[in-house]
Design brief:
By secondary structure, this protein is an alpha+beta fold. The protein has three domains: 92 residues, Zinc/RING finger domain, C3HC4 (zinc finger) (Herpes Virus-1, 2-Layer Sandwich), CATH 3.30.40.10; 158 residues; 171 residues, Jelly Rolls. It is built from eleven helices and 23 strands. A hairpin with a 4-residue loop joins strand 19 and strand 20.
Length: 561
């Protein structure tokens, strides 16, 4: 190690916030030094800009630039100290392969040191000039490392000791200062840990996707089996009843059998196609899981990062939320309708034939059956004024909520403990924690709104972070498309709706949204985990996307049967 390293101590190059060696150091007006990303994150979460060390406040947030002098010193220090430790760690991982002296011509002896300037390894005999010659004494010596040249920057001939998160590239300190100033640059050990964590998360995601598809395949098989049993039972009972009416119902009997068998065949064909697709995706995901697992086992940090894929870690797969196999519900509904008709067959014969034709011709029969199934779990929903943002107005019956542009300044109002302060939202009164429930909301011609279910502990003060763990399962409508609150800018449905049905099955962990007018599914959150009571969540939004002052109205279910 070069003797000049003794001029500095590690404490002189540590950021007071992250307690690590400076990365892109900046100096505040009061004279203290920090990593640029550290001080930026510190000020982002603080109401005023002040120094974390001396607490001096600044009237305006300083526009900080990288202190190149301190950055160069920190880089030299890292070259002399931090990277030595890193290379020693790497060398320990390579104990199985002995590093030989590059100078020995006959029998190569084992190297005792590697030189970062010479890019060579030396045995104790050939290392002697580095201990004697004044010019060579200034070279940086580390524990023996194999393939040292591959660990050096080919452009600047310096050790690759940093990693750019944005570009997924290994860097020397010169590369970092010249072309990556505004990027997230971290030391190689830190990048190694971070990328391994990403791989672990990706691997967990792949495993979860595999399990999701296994469950969907199982559900599809069970639904086909149940649908087949329902179909056979309906055919048998219907034939027996219709046979007693002989000629008058002979035509209806033949048509009924044909329609049901055709539906069953279609259901089986759809299920077989879906199962084939799932088998293929499962195979692809299993192959991906194997590759990720093998990559994750790589111990050499640089080899790991050099092998890290630049493209997406996950293969293209089907969105499982768009597939629901509910043919057995369709069969159940048909059985019920026919049983009621048989008791007054002659008076209701025309109605029965109408039902059969409708069942045969309508592609939306399954969706309509599912909607009618959901609607039977309707609950009475009223809004809780104690949770409403000050810029919202509720109707006297607490069934409507709208954005109130004329509310004026509300900063001086007494803030209630359960009130939303940033999101223009309100919760319903009374939580739901078990069973199934359903309610409908009329959104009319609104250009933006958000609707869903929230936990009792959902954040109400300040901005609510849009993530899968925020305690809010909601869809957000923006002009002509839908996205989920937890996944911004990812469309899940297109087109306007006027009336939205919300169905929750607490036992299955599922929340579904449906266009009531067309009986078309909008989006479903499958396999949710509910650890708290759920409260209906309403956000009428402001006028950012045009006139949007119409209310969101909780309406009763209009049943057609």
């Amino acid at each position: 190690m070069a003797s000049s390293s003794s001029l500095f101590t590690e404490e002189q190059f540590l950021c007071p916030i992250c307690l690590d060696v400076f990365i892109r150091p900046v100096s505040t007006p009061c004279g203290h030094n920090f990593c640029m990303s550290c001080i930026a994150s510190y000020w982002d979460g603080a109401p005023v800009s002040q120094c974390p060390v001396c607490k001096e406040r600044f009237q305006r947030r300083p526009d900080l630039k990288v202190n190149t002098f301190i950055s160069e010193l920190a880089s030299q220090f890292m070259s002399l100290h931090v990277t030595d430790t890193h290379i020693q760690s790497t060398a320990q991982q390579q104990l199985s392969s002995v590093v030989l002296c590059d100078i020995c011509t006959d029998a190569q002896r084992e190297a005792v040191k590697s030189c970062l300037e010479c890019l060579s390894s030396y045995c104790d005999v050939h290392l002697e000039p580095h201990c004697r010659a004044s010019g060579l004494k200034r070279h940086t010596l580390v524990e023996p490392v194999a393939s040292l040249e591959s660990r050096m920057c080919k452009k600047h001939n310096r050790l690759l000791m940093l990693f750019c998160i944005e570009d997924k590239a290994l860097l020397c300190n010169v590369c970092a200062m010249s072309h990556h100033l505004k990027h997230d640059v971290v030391p190689v050990p830190q990048a190694y840990d971070k990328m391994r964590d990403l791989l672990a998360k990706a691997e967990d995601k792949v495993q979860q996707m595999i399990q999701d598809r296994f469950r969907k395949v199982q559900n599809a098989r069970e639904s086909v089996t149940q649908s087949k049993a329902e179909t056979q039972g309906m055919i048998t009972s219907s034939v027996q009843d219709l046979a007693e009416l002989e000629f008058e119902i002979k035509k209806s009997q033949v048509e009924l059998i044909g329609v049901v068998e055709k539906k069953q065949k279609t259901a089986e064909e759809q299920a077989e196609g879906f199962i084939r697709d799932m088998d293929r995706e499962i195979s692809e995901l299993q192959a991906t899981a194997t590759k990720l697992s093998e990559l994750k086992q790589t111990k050499d940090q640089l080899s790991f990062l050099q092998s890290y894929p630049n493209l997406s870690l996950l293969p293209h797969t089907t969105d499982l939320s768009t597939f629901n196999f509910n043919r057995h519900l369709e069969m159940q509904h048909m059985c019920k309708s026919l049983r009621n008709s048989f008791s007054q067959l002659r008076a209701l014969l025309n109605k029965m034939n109408t039902e059969i034709h409708k069942f045969s011709d309508s592609d939306d029969a399954s969706n309509e059956a599912v909607l009618r199934y959901m609607q039977q779990y309707e609950v009475n929903v009223v809004l809780d004024p104690d949770t409403a943002h000050p810029l919202l107005s509720l109707s006297d019956d607490r069934k409507q909520v709208r954005y109130n542009m004329g509310a004026g300044l509300w900063a001086n109002q007494v803030m209630k403990a359960n009130m939303f302060t940033e999101h223009l939202a309100v919760l319903a009164q009374g939580g739901l924690s078990s069973g199934k429930f359903y309610f409908e909301v009329n959104v009319g011609q609104k250009t933006e709104w958000c609707l869903g279910l929230a936990t009792a502990s959902v954040q109400r003060r300040g901005a609510l972070v849009r993530s899968s763990h925020c305690g809010l399962w909601a869809i957000w409508f923006l002009e002509d498309k839908f996205e989920t609150f937890s996944s911004p800018a990812i469309p899940v449905h297109t087109g306007k709706v006027e009336r939205v049905g919300v169905f929750v099955d607490c036992d299955r962990g599922q929340i579904s949204f449906v266009d009531v007018v067309t009986a078309t599914p909008i989006y479903s959150f499958p396999e949710c985990v509910f650890t708290e009571e759920l409260y209906p969540y309403f956000n009428p939004c402001d006028n950012e996307y045009g006139s949007n002052l119409d209310p969101m109205v909780i309406v009763p279910v209009c049943r057609t049967e």
